[in-house]
Specification:
By secondary structure, the chain is of the alpha+beta class. The chain contains 7 helices and 20 strands. It has 2 domains: 13-241, Glucose Permease (Domain IIA), CATH 2.70.70; 242-340, no CATH class. β1 and β2 (56-58) form a beta hairpin. It is globular and about 65 Å long. The two termini are 33 Å apart.
């Protein structure tokens, strides 16, 4: 017979998402006509960025990739890039005589539209769409940014390859020449994001729980390439190859949504856990969760990979310092509180 606690746990997981579970196999496609990713990527696929480094102007396409690929600085260890790019920027292929982008943007997989932002000034993404995909009962969120048009409504079901909008250049720091689609595939941190945001930031949050701060983007370009090679690939299998850069213990809280959204992360499901230790990639993507027999009153750094480079440059300012001197920054502590908010 199913125990009451187990039944409650299952019900909680079921309530954390909004559409019925889909089959385990993921069917996924690129969102525009630009498929150069599968032919080497490079400047044919990625939109360049404008860079001015030590007085030298350049337009590197590498700035359109996922990862710490922007804002270089000179350090004792050489040039280090300091700004993280959470998605990929897909280059425009079709323009009208005035140079306006015409590329159709399509859903990368079957799912449900959960958010549309029609006001460019409400986000650095400009006009953007978020679609929820349920794979193996867990919610993942594709995000399509800098759109000129949005052709879907909230709560609308969409199919893989269905038109959802048109490429544009809405959002911060983009002009017509650099029109592109910013694409992400994300995990979500917390359903209590809005109250956490209101407590920690003076600016209003116009995008609810689908604010980019509440979404952790995986390396979607590498996921597309790996999925083409291994069609049965799942997100947990993909993230199993990621390197753990740091671990943080957080209090055992009933509001710890991460383990409810993604139960596959839990490596130690003991009911006696007094705290949870979360393993993170350098990108900030959570990789696994383990129950611990000790209590913590606040987020506590328990491990960090040794590096000659300051951790601030490698962890999106969640950590600072090197080796045994590394510590959670104020920003890092604030983010960790989100995971168990409002406790």
């Amino acid at each position: 017979m199913m125990s009451r606690s187990f039944a409650i746990a299952l019900a909680t997981i079921a309530l954390s998402v909004s559409v019925p579970a889909q089959n385990a196999k993921i069917e996924i496609s690129l969102p525009t006509d630009n498929d150069a990713l599968f032919r080497g990527g490079g400047p044919d696929f990625y939109q360049y960025v404008d860079r001015d480094y030590q007085g030298v102007k350049s337009t590197p396409w590498e700035g359109g990739r996922y990862g710490v690929v922007r804002d270089p600085i000179q350090t004792a260890e050489g040039i280090v890039y300091t700004r993280f790019h959470e998605g990929i920027d897909i280059k425009c292929l079709h323009r009208d005589p005035r140079g306006e982008p015409l590329d159709e943007v399509r859903a990368i997989a079957d799912g449900k539209v959960v958010h549309t932002n029609h006001v460019p000034g409400y986000s650095n993404y400009g006009r953007y769409i978020v679609i929820e995909h349920l794979w193996d009962g867990c919610p993942y969120y594709s995000l399509y940014g800098h759109l000129s048009e949005i052709d879907v409504n909230g709560a609308q079901r969409v199919s893989r390859g269905q038109r959802i909008g048109r490429m544009g250049y809405t959002g911060e720091g983009i002009n017509q020449a650099r029109a592109h689609l910013h694409l992400e595939l994300n995990l979500m941190f917390s359903r209590n994001f809005e109250s956490w945001h209101d407590r920690n930031f003076p600016d209003p949050n116009h995008n609810g729980i689908y604010n980019g701060l509440n979404l952790a983007g995986i390396d979607i370009a590498r996921f597309f390439l790996e999925h083409q090679r291994r069609p049965e690939l799942t997100v947990p299998q993909f993230l199993a190859d990621e390197e753990v850069f740091y671990r943080v213990a957080v209090p055992n809280s009933p509001h710890f949504d991460l383990k409810k959204f993604y139960p596959w992360m839990i490596k130690n499901a003991s009911g006696s856990a007094k705290s949870w230790e979360i393993s993170f990639a350098g990108s900030g993507v959570p990789l696994s969760i383990e129950g611990r027999g000790y209590s913590v009153s606040q987020a506590t750094l328990t491990f960090v990979k040794k590096s000659a480079i300051d951790s601030a440059y490698l962890t999106r300012d969640q950590l600072a310092g090197r080796g045994e001197h590394a510590h959670l920054t104020e920003s890092g502590m604030r983010f960790m509180r989100l995971l168990t908010w409002p406790d």
